[in-house]
């Protein structure tokens, strides 16, 4: 999994859902935002190969869809605001795109909670002190 693969998936998802074209620079910035949120939830600095010079991807392959969802949510929200500020013959388009972005981001944030919970469960640090004696 690398930035080009995720960029293609985000662009395809958004074009299918909105019939709008999203610039590559916007999609990459939204992938950065999704990676930042993912890193906060996982509790460590995550990387995506090809994004900001990263050579390797530290995000599990199964979480690629989660990043696509988050990046698509950020991109749709930004694109909707951008269209609202520009001359637009169909004003409802920007409202629908912003609403789509908000729904995608709400789902993304819910799934980030599962990442946080899973990382806490898999933690190598014991939640009790090292000197505590446990009844076994």
Could you explain how this protein is built, in words?
The protein has one domain (3-118). The model has no long low-confidence stretch (mean pLDDT 80). It contains 4 helices and no strands. With 136 residues, the protein is mainly alpha-helical. The protein has helices spanning 3-18, 24-42, 64-85, 91-121.
Briefly summarize what is shown.
With 136 residues, this protein is mostly helical.
Rg estimate, integer Å:
18 Å
> Number of helical segments?
4
Tell me the number of structural domains: 1
Structural class: mainly alpha
The best one-word shape is: globular
Number of strands: 0
* Span between termini: 43 Å
Task: Identify the quaternary structure here.
Answer: single chain
Strand content is under 5%
Listing every helix as H and every strand as E from the N terminus to the C terminus, the arrangement reads: HHHH
Uncertain residue segments = none
The chain-level mean pLDDT equals 80
Q: Fraction of residues in helices?
A: 55-70%
Report the sheet with the most strands, covering strand number, pairing sense and barrel closure. Answer: none
